[in-house]
Amino acid sequence: MGSKNRPTSTFKSKLKSSLPYILVVSIIGFISFLIRIRPSDSVFLSNGFVKFGGNDPWYHMRTLNVLLENYPNRMFYNPMTNYPNGSYIHFGPLFDQMMAITSLVLGMGSPGQDLITTVGAYFPAVLGALTVIPVYYVGKYLGGHKTGILAAILIAFAPGQFLHRSIIGFTDHHVAETLFSTFFMMFFMLALISAKEKRLRFEHVITKNLDVLKEPLIYSIIAGFMYSAYQLSWPGASLFLLIILVYAVIQYVIDNFHGESSDYLGIVGTVTFLVSSILILPFVHPEMGFSMYYYSWFHVITVFGALMIFAFLGLIEREFKKRNLKTYYFPLAIFGAFIFGLIAVKIAVPSLYSLVINAPHSIFGVQTGGPSTIREVTSIFYPGGEFSFSRVYNYFTAPAFFASIAGMILLTANIIRKPRPEELLALVWGLLMFMAIYGQNRFAYYYSVNIAVMGAYLGGRLLELVKWDRLEENFRTNVKSLKDFPSFFRFVKIEQIFAILAIFAVLVLPEYSSAMGQTIGGPGGPNGPWIESCLWLQSNTPDPGMDYNSVYEAPEDGELFDYPETAYGVMSWWDYGHWIETIGHRMPNANPFQAGIGGRRGSIDEENKPGASTFFTAQSEEEATKVLEAVDPDPDKAGARYIVSDIEMASLYDGKFLPMATWTLDSEGYYAQYQVEGNSQILPTMRYYNSMESRLHFLDGNGLKQYRLVHESWAGQSNEVAYKQIYNLFYGGNVPEEDSGYVKIFEYVKGANITGIASPNETIKISTAILTGQGRTFEYSQSTTSDSEGRYEFTVPYSTEGPVSGETQFDTAPTGPYVVSYEDTTKEVRVNEEAVLNGEKVKI
């Protein structure tokens, strides 16, 4: 009986000894959660509106609501964005499913909208807090409980990208990526440790020796589940597949040089990726081919390929030992097999070969052209094209960053002296993620884990120097209850106190201070003018005739989605596409998937494709209209009915105008150096003021024939007045030097054709005063010259008679009739809305 009870007693003993650490990690996780929900007031606004952060979080809430409306069917193709093409959704399904299941459970099968938005807002903070668990265990495997606890503290307080993407309201899959990728590394590491300790061999598999197999196989299977969870959170999970394969090759080489078997590694890797390859199969969309960005055969092949690589490495190792070949031939054999494999893939599946070859650059390379304007994919070390540590300090704090570098150096020295699989894995993981943030700063939220682990490893080694392990032993031996706790302090030495204070001052306190500062302003997202303008779109523009929460089938390959006649697009810069769709319930032409941008990708000699970049940088109304009409393949229909601009799009120096121009690969000539009162200044040129964006936002569309301002938000802080002053002073302009709406909505219309008779070759002006919904007044005017017979014609976009039912309910309109004037003649003319919408003639 005693022998039967021993495993239970051992488990209870281990659980009892682990309880203090479980309690500490739980407290750290709870503090991490509290940090992440600090800005809740900036998410749950006093007017009842829930303001999610950034851009993609809005789209996740969109897909979440569609999922719950049609559960369990989710949206994979969405025709309500990137009009008139629609967009396939590359987001993984798991993040939305977790939120949906949570909402369904809490709502007892029928969650209300308030519950759904609350779950969505808090979800990233919960996942961010849970990340302390795998980080603790990774730290523990490298340096014991002390290292694990310190790693948990550092990730809990980690500022920058990881904090921003796990804060309340930033409902994006990035935090799920970090959580599941770290869990994957934790269980893979645990499987390696267990398999190595048990001297796992392939013979144990053949003989079904469960005493040896059981524990490593369980950990390997869980690692496979975690990799699948990671992969189903983000289709780019092959990043961590690459990390594992690089580690595996190095580990095989090291084991071979030491005359040790790598069977333990081969079995762990094979089982892990066998499980992953099976789990990913149900989510594959065959129509996506070998795409990296959507769940396609690429994801099955890469995971299955990893499985085959582990099997192949094991086979090579066995052959080397059987034939007693020299160890230095082993890496050469691996390299040769790699080259042969690439050649075979290139011959058999050229498209897959291209993806494999280009994948490292897409992760580790610095972006150029239009993609270089996407903030999250720029290098962390070259934020503005020049080397800088500014982002590094902001994302990690300088002490934590340099401590992690020191930790990796220390770990390298330890591996050289006595290599352990878990240490080599941690080092390769850290080094490759360091390379990844060089290429794209977005990977900083991953690297925060490496910062925490490596910084904790350095701190743990410092604690070892002051005999911290002996202090832990004294605690376990002498503290049996709370009353024993005071007596424990007699074992504490002064150097241990100083070590703790040093770690707290150098690593913990700077991170905590930075995190507190970065949680003051909330998760970002649309400001008040954007929220108001999108809500205005929803309430005051015609229904496009689409069922907003339906799950639509994707069109057949090569065909376009069959939109109703009432459908139309909304043209704005891609940053705002998800807000327009989710808050405004309208169909943006461009979106943050970088769809609908147009422009060029490789060379200035390419065709400047129609899209947002070509529209807003167009140098005339005629050019812009051609772009707008080219967006829609229907020759009788324009690609957009509404154009939404904001002051950031109009700002040249520190806004979005130059990024728009950069996507066309033609960003020169928008500013030049001028001498102003003896000083050299960089000022906008006429090329900038001639752009459609400048004509719309700064000049209110004055003089344009088919574009009218239908709504503007309240003004915001900007340099708008300075741009207008420069225009008036240097280029003969005469615009009021005042701030106008932060966001402006224009409508593209056919325009009413006003015709009349005057003297031949007479200069004729038409004008009217426009009053906006914000109470601002500006003049709309055009000039023309009558022909030899005295005929003249104006195309005007404003109706003087107000809106009509079923069309735009504009709040910006003329205060009276148009006034046509020439010589001493003045005539008034009124134009109804039908004439503007249908392009009818109005005779004077």
UniProtKB/TrEMBL annotation:
Its main location: membrane. Its EC number is 2.4.99.21. It comes from Methanosarcina siciliae T4/M. InterPro entries: AglB-like_core, AglB_P1, Oligo_trans_STT3, OlisacTrfase_arch, STT3_N. This is dolichyl-phosphooligosaccharide-protein glycotransferase. The lineage of its organism: Archaea, Methanobacteriati, Methanobacteriota, Stenosarchaea group, Methanomicrobia. It is found in: Cell membrane. Keywords: Glycosyltransferase, Magnesium, Manganese, Membrane, Metal-binding, Transferase, Transmembrane, Transmembrane helix. One of its GO terms (molecular function) is metal ion binding.
